[in-house]
Sequence to fold (525 residues):
Amino acid sequence: MEETIISPDGTQEYFINMGPQHPSTHGVLRLVLTLDGEIIEKVEPHLGYIHRSIEKMCEKDNYRQIIHLTDRMDYLSAHMNNHAVSLAIENALEVEIPDRAKYIRVIMDELTRISSHTLWWGVMGMDLGAITSFLYGFRDHEYITEIFEETCGARLTMNYNVPGGVMFDIHPNFVKHVKDFLADFKTKLPEYDTLLSGNVIFLERTKGVGILSKEDAISFGVTGPAGRASGFSNDVRKKEPYGIYDQLDFKEILYTDGDTYSRYKARIDEMWESIKIIEQLIDNIPEGDFQAKTRKVIKLPKGEFYQKVETARGELGVYIVSDGKMSPYRMKFRSPGFSNLSALDRMARGGKIADLVAIMSTLDLVVPDIDR
Amino acid sequence: MTNEELTNTITSWFPDVEFIEEGSQYLTILVSKEKLLDVISKLKEDTSTHFDYMFCLTCVDWPEHFQMVYHLKSSDLDHMLVLKVNFEDKEKPEVETVCKMYATAELHEREVYDLFGVVFLNHPDLRRLLLTDDWEGYPLRKDYVDEINIVTL
Fold:
């Protein structure tokens, strides 16, 4: 095992295992910390506790089956993961999908983003010792989950996107319930600010903590709200628009401080932007088909296809190498959590062990997304 | 830069770089593994190309060779490029690490080492990442036989 190094003044650094069973890792992530007193000298992630080798399974599955695996990666961005694979397949086949499906997909994506961020906000508060936020966050998360359940039939792994569109039409009550939710959530979101954002203890624990510079964010490939809080402008919805994002009016949230508080604020602001996006769409869902006709057995042409999608955690890349058969020759998922995690060591080094929990919260890691 | 300008710039720097015309939405170049570090550091450091963001790093196991695939993007100029390296030697695949240029490569290369068995020379910490240390074989290789899971898909 690791050797104990005793320094000339008689003190020694020691190792602590954080996880795989730890409430603030939100899943089975194990971190080996090297400490000097309570100062962190090194954070080393040990992965693979829930590695299911989804990429290997994809090589045996056909393209319709693959969709059912991808929402089990980042389960809080299930719609976006499915969206990414569907788009990659549609682009390869050059299928034009109906407008109705495009609208539904974007509304679902943004609802997913809000639900993911509400859950993140709840557990972040809990990680820092505020139980109330956990209850508030789950209250709003539950509201969206019920909307999903009504239309998709499932609450977590929806499998709603299929190549060509969406699996079923939206539930007759969908529009009404989404509008009710937005009206309700707009009164609830300011509560988030009054409860945490202005709280002195919260500010003390987040401001200036876990700073990631813009250069580091780019080098480590930290994307999503975590990267944008460091000033790395990389919103796929703006930079390489997919679906109907190029026709929508919304802002890319950018902060420059790169500390834990900026990452927190970036997500809160993103929720407001998502509300704005859904409001632009919900009354204008076009009539028509919700699915384009595709062949029962999908075979992609030979070649490589790459599709990026902005999930709640950052840039998800789907890389398909096809040799013209029913299953991909190689499939790679560039998951945002994996790259975001790699910067954790840089952010936590030199800080206190208690700050690590706050830093990890604002990276918003979902372990199945990292392990795949 | 447009793809055409990129093609001209790269050709003027490295005349022996091969361009792959078909099969991808991105401009794709094939580099020999000896030249990899030169090409990638020039592409990153030069202000006219400035590929500072590596958004994907992976490997493909083709019947005759392994192929490393690096997806690069410039964070301010917004152009993209795919860089590929083939190595014919399937028994002992080795390539230089790109960790020094891209910090994200450290974990990504460990994943490729773990699942494909590609050795990255001068990598600071090349160990298995997802699988246990005593795991035998490299699961994402095409010739890998999984004896534990009896049910095959």
Q: What stands out?
A: Chain A has one domain: 51-371.
